Amino acid sequence: GESVGLHLPTLSVQEGDNSIINCAYSNSASDYFIWYKQESGKGPQFIIDIRSNMDKRQGQRVTVLLNKTVKHLSLQIAATQPGDSAVYFCAEPRDSWGKLQFGAGTQVVVTP
Amino acid sequence: EADIYQTPRYLVIGTGKKITLECSQTMGHDKMYWYQQDPGMELHLIHYSYGVNSTEKGDLSSESTVSRIRTEHFPLTLESARPSHTSQYLCASKDRDHEQYFGPGTRLTVT
């Protein structure tokens, strides 16, 4: 069925600080999770993914943590920069054919 | 960077007009998707395709239709545009990995 639209929560971060973006997922059987970044006026861009048999995965300035006990995912951005201002979505697979279920998204605003 | 393209990027059109939003990818991906996204809101899947001659409706009811005659091309058509169709339309494609690659989107305004 159709879902009700939700306005995005906003995280305001000072430049240079670390950001933590949280996401709750619904399907305990999901075997991977993905974080996307969407800048204003652009399509979502892949940041990092994590398989369900991992607790932590690090990329360049980003770390994703997975807590399967409470079905919680987080994205940590180190030393947040103005270019990190965007909306961040987590996503999990819906079926074996590649459809994704996107979370509501979090707007990150980096202040000088 | 993903090779997936959408045209036009911006479109302002009057009520009742027929429009086609183009989406093309040069990666040879079988799976393609159309999402609708209002500003500051979630992505809603409106159509998807698993390959040539395969099209399915997504979660969000949409008056648009799609076709998949060629692997690389997945156009979306609105037969009669209405103000309620005003939104951003995002196209994506996927290969065997789990990442979906998104195009830049088409921002549609129906007056």
Please supply descriptive tags for the structure shown above.
heterodimer; A: 112 residues; mainly beta; Immunoglobulin-like; six-stranded mixed beta sheet; four-stranded antiparallel beta sheet; 10 strands; globular; B: 111 residues; seven-stranded mixed beta sheet; 11 strands; 50% strand
Summarize the structure.
The complex is a heterodimer of chains A (112) and B (111). Chain A has 112 residues and is mainly β.
Can you tell me the overall shape of chain A? globular
> Unreliable segments of chain A (pLDDT under 50, ≥5 consecutive)?
1-6
General shape of chain B? globular
Strand tally of chain A is 10
CATH-defined architecture of chain A = Sandwich
Radius of gyration of chain B: 13 Å
Mean pLDDT of chain A: 90
List the helices and strands and how they pair.
The complex is a heterodimer of chains A (112) and B (111).
Chain A: E1 10-14, E2 19-24, E3 32-38, E4 45-51, E5 56-58, E6 62-67, E7 72-77, E8 86-93, E9 100-102, E10 106-111
Parallel strand pairs in A: 1-10
Antiparallel strand pairs in A: 2-7, 3-4, 3-8, 5-6, 6-7, 8-9, 8-10
Chain B: E1 4-7, E2 10-13, E3 19-25, E4 31-37, E5 44-51, E6 54-57, E7 65-66, E8 76-78, E9 87-94, E10 100-102, E11 106-110
Structure, described:
The complex is a heterodimer of chains A (112) and B (111). Chain A is mainly β. Chain A has a single domain, classed as Immunoglobulin-like (Sandwich). Chain A has strands at 10-14, 19-24, 32-38, 45-51, 56-58, 62-67, 72-77, 86-93, 100-102, 106-111. In chain A, the strands form two sheets. In chain A, strands 1, 3, 4, 8, 9 and 10 form a six-stranded mixed beta sheet that branches. A four-stranded antiparallel beta sheet of chain A has the order 2-7-6-5, with no helix packed on it. In chain A, a hairpin with a 4-residue loop joins strand 6 and strand 7 (72-77). The model of chain A is unreliable at 1-6 (pLDDT under 50). By secondary structure, chain B is mostly beta strands. Chain B has a single domain (25-110), classed as Immunoglobulins (Immunoglobulin-like, Sandwich). In chain B, 0% of the residues lie in helices and 50% in strands. Chain B has no helices and eleven strands. In chain B, strands 2, 4, 5, 6, 9, 10 and 11 form a seven-stranded mixed beta sheet that branches. A four-stranded antiparallel beta sheet of chain B has the order 1-3-8-7, with no helix packed on it. Chain B starts with a strand and ends with a strand. Classes of the chains: A mainly beta (112), B mainly beta (111). The interface between A and B is medium-sized, with 30 and 27 residues.
